[in-house]
Each structure stands twice: as C-alpha cells, then as structure tokens.
Amino acid sequence: METPESPETRAARGGWYREFATRPSTPAIFQTTAFDVDGLEQLDAITTGREAGYIYTRDGNPNHEALASDVAALEGAAQGAVFSSGMGAMTATLLALLKSGDHVVAARVLYGRTAQMLNHLRASFGIEVTYVDGNDPTAFGRVVTPRTQLAIVETISNPLMEVADLPAISAGLGQVPLLVDSTFATPCLVKPMQHGAKLVFHSGSKYLNGHGDVMLGVIVGDTGLVRKIRGIGALYGVNSNPFESWLGSRGLRTLPLRMTQVCRTADALARFLTRHPSVLRVYYPGLESHPSHATALKMMPAGFGGMLAFDLRGGQPAVARLFRALGETIPFSPTLADTRTTVSYPAGTSHKFLSAEERATCGITDGLVRLSIGLEDEPTLRRELGAALDSLGTNE
C-alpha cells in the first residue's frame, strides 16, 4: 500500500503536470533558477556539449537562447547572447574584449551611458579612448594603433540621427572589430554584419520588444567574440531573466510591421515640423536637409526609422512649456520605441552625464527634443504636436 504524502511534502514537491503530446501554440516560459540533472554522467555530457541541456539559468536558459538566436538570424550573425539591459550587454562586451592598456576608437556622438562607461574604463582601468567624428568614416582608421582592440559606432546616432557609413568605417579599421549599436535601426532597416561589423548591439528594451515593458540587451556577431561576451556576462551576473527574454521574443514577432508603420509616420511628422515657426531645425535622415541624407539613402533603402529630434526656439524654457502642453497625450518619457509616441530631453536624460562642453561638441543643445514615434495614426499626432507647438507663442 502506497504511503500517502504529508501536506508538507506534497506542497514542497507539487506544481507538476502530466506529460502530454501536443505542443503549446506559443513558446513556453522556463521560469526556473536551475534544471535537474539525471546524474554525473549527464552533467558531464551537458557541460562538454555532447548533450543539449541547461543547468543554471545564469549560464543559459531556453528563453535566452530563443531570443538570441532569433535576433542573430535577423541580423545574419552566427550567434547571440541576451543580458539584463542594454548597458548590461555593453558592460559584458567591453569587459570581455578590453584590458588595461588597450585602445578604443568611438564615434563622438553615442548614447550617453555608453560614453560614460568608456570614460569610466579610461579613468579607472587605464583603457585609452579616442573619440572621432562619426560623419567622417576615414577618421576611425586614422587613429588606429597597434593597441586598438575595438571600434564603436551607432547605425543611427542618438540623438541627432546621423547615419554611419558602415562599409567605409569598416574598410579603414583593418582587423579591428567594429561594434555597431543598431538599436535605432533594427535589422529591418540595416544589417551591420553585411557592412563589415563583427558585433551588433541592441537595447532590446526598445524596438526589438517594442512594448515598453522589459529591460533587455542583446549582442550578436561572430561566434568566438559572442562566446567570450556571454561568459563574462555570466561571470558578472548581467544575464537576462527568462520572463523578460520571453517578452522580448513575443515583441519580436511584430517588429517588421511596427518598423514599417513608424518609418512612414516619422517621415510625415518630420516634414510637418520643418514648417512650424517654433522649430529651428529638424534632425531626421529622411529629410533632404539632413547631413546624413545621402548616406541614409545608401544604407537604409527600406526606411529611415521612427526616431527624430528637433531644436526649439527659446531653449530649455520652451522645452518645458512644450512638455506641459503635450501632457499625457505625448508624454515625456526617458526611453523610446514604445507602442505610444513619447518625447524626451537628451540634455537632461540620455546625455545628462556629459558635461555642457561635451554636449555642445556633440551638437546637443538645451532646446533639443527627441521624438519617438509610436503606432498612433499620423493625423492625430500631427494635430497634438501642432497644438502644443502653437501654444508656445502665447506663453511668456
């Protein structure tokens, strides 16, 4: 006669379901810290790669692998790895590829926290960093030294939307690996691996997920480099968790549709903003007036992205009034690529860690507003933006 389980034992060991033959219609979430192993023989088989399996989620999880492999496939890369945030991915990458005494060449206009991380490595670990004009593709190669281990550029720069001539930059670097932050472009608009990049970075919290509800970072690229980065990520504990990776995979299913929509809307709104008297200048690579327009035509035939920026007459006080006028219709949110349209203030958010002089060198003024286009219809956004901008002329 079978001995009945005590309530304590039943509660501690419950939660399991019967094995079944049908597959779920969407991928399952493996929300688990660890995976049970049959014995020492299986442990050895898994750790040596003779048998597919997982042991501890910090080192690997099916949801990590699903997202990483999908992004790698979209980018045309061999492998990928996922992390707890974009900066987690960047940290793992820099720590994996650089050591004291090494040299990095980077575009002068980068996401502010990336520049802050590079400056931290320079000050604390003796890594030399040279910043160059990303609009001059020959500038990267001119500063390469025998100690140069990495070059960094954004496909579309944050926040001035400058488009990098990746083939020309790569051609001047020789054997130095090129890391491209392609968060703004996504693989729908540019595939950096086709233009000489060895690594492609995404803040997966942005377009890849697209719903404003996760923190994720993704690195894809050459197998050897990605393996080193994944190992450092596990060592430092900056891996993603299963649920957020699953959410990222869910968002990825609609990425091409969303990018088509935001590109179309952003182009129309950029042209509308150029005609408004409160706006000094609009930064959007689809505009013929943008300095990178010729490069954008070459690099981005499918569209120019869903991000734009504009300078307001009146500087920071005008920005404050604009944000109040927009209210909750187009909210001030220090992120991008949500389903809803948002505004941000680079001088006070993404680039606040730079000095005023550094921001000025990058072209980031106190009147600069960044606009992240969402999935609303374009006439509604044009009406809301127009009304808020019109109100600036009636406020002291």
Structure write-up:
The structure is a single chain. The chain is α/β, with parallel strands linked by helices and 396 residues long. It folds into two domains: 40-252, 3-Layer(aba) Sandwich (Aspartate Aminotransferase, domain 2); 255-394, Aspartate Aminotransferase, domain 1, CATH 3.90.1150.10. 40% of the residues lie in helices and 14% in strands. The protein is built from 15 helices and eleven strands. The strands form two sheets. The chain has a seven-stranded mixed beta sheet with strand order 1-7-6-5-4-2-3, with helices on both faces. Helix 7 (166-173) links the parallel strand 4 (148-154) and strand 5 (178-181). The protein is globular, with a radius of gyration of 23 Å. The mean pLDDT is 94.
Task: Kindly summarize this structure in a few lines.
The protein is of the alpha/beta class and 396 residues long.
